């Protein structure tokens, strides 16, 4: 399953690069995120209806806008560099998370976090 997940994840960058030759970035993101939203809405409709949505709207909008912005930066980057480099740069978020927690929550990373970040960086580099 890990090999399949890695192949699909890595192949997605190549297919995105090909798609960007035919579709502008904004249209690609609109199609991608709209389809994802519709699929999730269909799958989770009963939970959505049972939830008090209004108090979740602000958090949802903030997350949605930040998610959209991250994808826009990634896709714009994909127009100028090859898919392998784009995937490498995107995967570095795994390495940065413990250090961002340190900056935001003022909780320093443990030795386990540092070792995991180093291993992740090496493995992503190998991929």
Polypeptide structure, described:
It is a single chain. 82% of the residues lie in helices and 0% in strands. The chain has seven helices and no strands. It starts with a helix and ends with a helix. The mean pLDDT is 83.
Labels describing this entry:
single chain, 127 residues, 82% helix
**Which range best describes the helical content: under 10%, 10-25%, 25-40%, 40-55%, 55-70% or over 70%?**
over 70%
Number of helical runs? 7
Overall mean pLDDT: 83
Helix- and strand-based class? Answer: mainly alpha
Instruction: Count the E strands.
Output: 0
Low-confidence stretches: none
Largest sheet: none
SSE topology:
Elements: H1 2-20, H2 25-43, H3 45-50, H4 57-78, H5 83-91, H6 93-105, H7 111-126
Quick take:
82% of the residues lie in helices and 0% in strands. It has helices at residues 2-20, 25-43, 45-50, 57-78, 83-91, 93-105, 111-126. The two termini are 16 Å apart.
């Amino acid at each position: 399953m890990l090999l399949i997940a890695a192949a699909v994840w890595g192949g997605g960058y190549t297919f995105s690069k090909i798609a960007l030759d035919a579709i502008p970035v904004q249209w690609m993101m609109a199609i991608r995120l709209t389809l994802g939203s519709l699929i999730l809405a269909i799958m989770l409709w009963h939970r959505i209806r049972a939830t008090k949505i209004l108090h979740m709207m602000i958090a949802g909008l903030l997350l949605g806008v930040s998610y959209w912005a991250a994808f826009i930066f990634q896709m714009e980057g994909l127009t100028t560099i090859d898919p392998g480099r784009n995937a490498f740069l995107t995967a570095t978020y795994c390495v940065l998370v413990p250090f961002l927690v340190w900056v935001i929550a003022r909780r320093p990373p443990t030795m386990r976090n540092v070792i995991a970040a180093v291993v992740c960086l090496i493995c992503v580099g190998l991929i």
